[in-house]
Amino acid sequence: MSSAHLHLIINHIPVLGVLFGAAILAYGLWRSQDAVIRVALGLFVASGLGAVGTYFSGEGAEEIVEELPGISHDIIETHEEVALIAFLLTALLGTVALALLIWRPQSDIPRGASVSLLVAAIGVFGVLAYTANTGGKIRHTELRDGTTQTTTLARPSTLVVCTEP
After folding, report:
1. Which of 51, 65, 126, 159 lies at a CB distance of 3.0 to 4.6 Å from 14, suitable for a disulfide?
2. Which residues neighbour 1 within 8 Å (Cβ) at sequence distance 6 or greater?
3. pTM value?
């Protein structure tokens, strides 16, 4: 398994973990169920750990894809810059969630802390979604701003021109 493969596998952990964690946290707050809130906090911790793995596998992934045809160095750099911010915010969210779980092992998580984490998680998810979008643009030219790519494929007896949307 290459670094690029590893990066593509684990980059979904923080994005989906924060998304589902926020939804579960909102449900736990709505129903006033501390056990559900704790599950959400656990997802934030897992997301923070996933962000660590995702961020540190990114450099190896870059080394593999940067020389491939059609890869834009500018897009990689943009992804790298926002990935650092996403990594730091997700790690911070996970750290605060872990601190709350450790600080309040037997008593309910304070509602104010839970609401604050929900607001933070929504913001972190936005940054993660943007980061994922910039990462997708590295290999998926159809995600780039209104560009299309024309590829010419030569076959032994025919010439086929394919236009990708």
Report:
1. 51
2. none
3. 0.83
Could you tell me the two tokens for 93? 């969210």
Q: Quickly name the fold that domain 3-164 has.
A: Four Helix Bundle (Hemerythrin (Met), subunit A) (1.20.120)
Residue 34: phi and psi, rounded to 5, are -60, -35
Question: Both tokens of residue 73?
Answer: 């160095």
Say yes or no to pLDDT of 155 above 90. Answer: no
| Helix, coil or strand: residue 104 | coil
Q: What is the pLDDT of residues 52-67, one digit of tens each?
A: 999 999 988 888 888 8
Q: Is 148 helix (H, G, I), strand (E, B) or coil?
A: coil
Residue 11 CB partners (closer than 8 Å, separation 6+)? 54, 132, 135
